[in-house]
Amino acid sequence: MYPHERSLVKRLADKPFVLVGINSDSEERLREAKEREDISWRSFWDGGSTGGPIARAWRIRGWPTVFVIDDQGIIRHNGIRGKKLDEALDELLERAIVTLVENVQSEDPQIRGLAAFRMGKYLAPDAKKVLAGLLKDEAPSVRRRAATGLALLGEPVQPLLALLKDAVEDEIAEVRVGSLAGLRQVGSERAGDKELATVVINALEDPQVEVRLAAIETLGAFQNPLAVPTLARMTRDQPPKIGKAAALALASFGAEESGELLKELAEDPQHPAKVWIAVAMHRIDEPGVEERFERFLSDDDVKIRRQAVMALPELGDFDSTDLYILALQDEDVEIWKTSRTALSRSNSERAIEALHKNLVDRIDKLLPLLSGSDFGEERRTLRQLSDLGQPAAQILFERLEELPERPQYILWKIIAPMRSPEVLELVLKKLHDPQIDSSIRKYSEGVVRYMPEKARAGVNDLARCDDARVRLSGVRLMRLYDDQQATDALHEALEDESSLVRVNAAAGLAQNKDLRALAVLEELLEVDDPKVLRSAIASLSRYDPEIAVPLLTKLTNQRHHAVLDAVIRSLGTIKASEATAAIVECSEKTPSMKHAAIMALRRQNTSASVLALGGFLRDPDSNIQQMARLILQRMNKPEAKKVLEEYAQQEREAKKEADSKDLEKAETS
Fold first, then answer.
1. pTM of the full predicted structure?
2. Domains defined for the chain, CATH in brackets
3. Are strands 75-78 and 20-23 parallel, antiparallel or unpaired?
4. Omega before residue 530 within 30° of 0, cis
5. Residue 560 has pLDDT above 90, yes or no
């Protein structure tokens, strides 16, 4: 969700919107994510587990969970994502702007002043006119906040300068940040203004990181030499983003003012901002950048290597290809991903060749690990292969036939989501071969399912093939499309000579309760082929209960275990009392199907299915009794609790009666 969050922060930068993240990862993973995903918004750490105090307080059950809170602190939405989230935010933001306009009329100077500042910050309608009037407000806090809002609207800063200086010490951090942004507009025009420089330098001691960052950026714009020693000291500040900002600000002063100081800082191999000092030195044309970054990328500390590879884009016009190629060899996944992404954007032959060689080397190193018996290692290997991304898909596809059956199966599951157009073309050719194994055929179809639109012409060709095995693939894949052309193709396939082709065509049409498909399904229920029967049975559940249940009930006399299992499963998806009765009847006719019947009744989750499960509590098989009891305990139906209580009461009464009889026998004897 990070890309969407970044887009929201960027799109709503001039709106009254704040994104607050709560992260349940370990501290190290959180730091990595902040750097890797460019998390510029506030993100709190919740203790490093999904049971952290914030997650518990907010009763979080799934990650990510999104709460949308309005400007009054009221939760308006919970769990929405994507387009719905965007629409909800836009609606609430419109209301928030209206509230600002209302609040600027408040009698409370705190509310009035903050509303004035935010009208400027968020470009509210008629903001300039309203704020200009507030420059004469009786409350000093309102005047300085109105001035800050006007500066943010691009009004000339010189007449507002005195108020902006005062606003640098405002009690609200966002006002302090805004005032520094306003002062920044003065730029180098006031480079010699010691008083102004002192005001901004003092802001470097602010307890809020965002204020210190704003002050550093403003000092870089002023280029007042007074700030150089302080900025040099700030390169050692924490968090690291402060050190980075200070180092880059020093570069803006040029070699004459900050060159010697940067060299002195660079001599400290333990300096926490040494990577950014190297970037700053490059910006003032100090030679040796390649050698410095080669050292960083070979450092024993993975944090330094990560910082270095993330800093390479900051080197401007410097050709970093060789440095990215060096980083490509790193075993750290994040470093490798970053360097691969950068090289993939290059047209350099060196970059293309290095990427391909690196992929081949990594794949050849990882594939043998899939043939062992260590499932933990297998999972880790699969994650690493998945991380290789789309460029690795074709190489993995070409290696498939060299592997045993199980590694082949799990590799198909990795290749398909990579959505490689090259692999899709190869797979469509493979599907035209009638001799390929049925399992390989299904795995190959899985690749097509991830790219249906790109495969449309190929699927049409498969559906028209002379060989029924190939047509079967075409018909199965034709079900991916919801248009008239696909419907016509499936209707045509209802007349196919192959029962498997016909039943798959009917399955696709059954989604819309197609009556022609229903007639074919009824006909196919007479076929003595378990594969055909199972598919037909599953498709019947798409139709209304009054149609499906009688047809499925006729099959409860089947002796084939797999077919009976399919019947019970299909009945379990139908929430009708007739379906419940049919499930129970099937379990009575064939006691070996009781387990499947209980699971089907659980899936129904109706009042009738709860009562039916109660009947299994009296089954002579204790395992069936226990299973029914566990299912009822987990169901959220109030009837389930009642059934269990009644059964417990009957058990107590039966025991009491048995104890009484035992006592009578003892007294008689």
1. 0.68
2. 2-84 (3.40.30.10), 575-669 (no CATH)
3. unpaired
4. no
5. no
